[in-house]
Amino acid sequence: MTEARLLPEADLMLVNALADGELDAPSAAALERRMADEPALRQSYDAIVATREALGRLERPAMDAGFLDRIGSVVGAFGPDAASARRPSRWKADWRALAASVLVAVLVAGSGGYWLGTNTMSQQNIADLVASSHRRSLLAASPVDIASSSRHTVKPWLDSRIGISPPAPDLAAKGFVLVGGRVDVIGGHAVPTLVYRHNEHLITVVAEPAGAAISGPRDSQTDGYNMVNWSGNGFDYWAVSDLERPELDGFVARYIAASGAGKNDQSSSTIAQ
Amino acid sequence: MPHLKDALAFARWLTGSRDDAEDVVQEACLRAYASIGGGTVLRPRAWLLAIVRNAAFTWMAKNRPKWLLASGDGTEMDRLAETGEASFTDLLTRTPEAELIRKADMAAVREAVAALPVRLREVLILREFNDLSYRDIADVLAVPIGTVMSRLSRARLLLAASLAEGCRD
Lengths: 273, 169
What we know:
heterodimer; A: Phosphorylase Kinase, domain 1
């Protein structure tokens, strides 16, 4: 200990912020100038740095195999025989599927900060919601919030509304004209939706942000509407229409081909035509 | 598994026990699931650490009733952690010397961290062991940044004093 008195708390906080790299450049420069003149400031700074160094010498708790086994057995992420983990799981088997979706959801969130609810909704729930949203849009004055046949208009509009937009390829030459886009709410989440027209039939394409999985297309039918579900480009897609099955499948095939669904680039706005 | 290691480190230093930390993190994963229901998680690391923190407090209160007492909850030291407590500076009238702090061995450092009041300790852990910014720490603890800065500076001052004192003996 030396004879230097403690600094006022405000100064102490400033010196800490400097040590933590939390000061902007002008404030840091000003404080360093003061430190040159005031030994008490300099001494506090040195003490903080020394304390941080002392903490830095401590070992970091490692995630040992036992713990990973335990979490692994809980989330089922380390193989089917994970039940033989060294530490018995305190969770019932029922919880495993739930826990697995937690970690999957946390991973998804870590990679992009997107919402986490989709893992908890069944595919059938989503299909029902997508179908009813399609039906509502047919009853509404306009099926779209932004009417434009240009993806250069629709994508920026969706981006500005909810910060995300799926590929919106121009398929007019194939007989599918882009009508526009809207924001649907599926399971409490705002999702980007595109609307295409084929003859007098509308096709709703709902694109839910998802992980990197690529799958589908899978055909289904809900409420009398034909539906197709597939994944790629970082989205889970649902196409719904009263089009005949072969025509809807044809649309989906062209959409996938034109949007490069083999890639996983959610932010991709360059679309192969 | 991003964030799992952070969760474990935070729980480890908060509870002071490896086994308790693992139980707490497991419990936190369960809670994380329950709270996912809907909504956006924009800062997943801060979000998960906040859940770990809550899980740690309830788990320890239930299973280690002495922990809260030992952690200084409700004691004089814990009140000192709150901002605006003028008598704090009475405890430390001099700035500890860096040379003395550097002599502290690892066991002494570990003990000094464990002895910090929990309100100060959690801020220090998030900063030093989880490497969170002030902004993120404020998010995890749901307190203003000014409170984070005040608690962090007090935590380091107490730590520095206790390390320097230990080396003089």
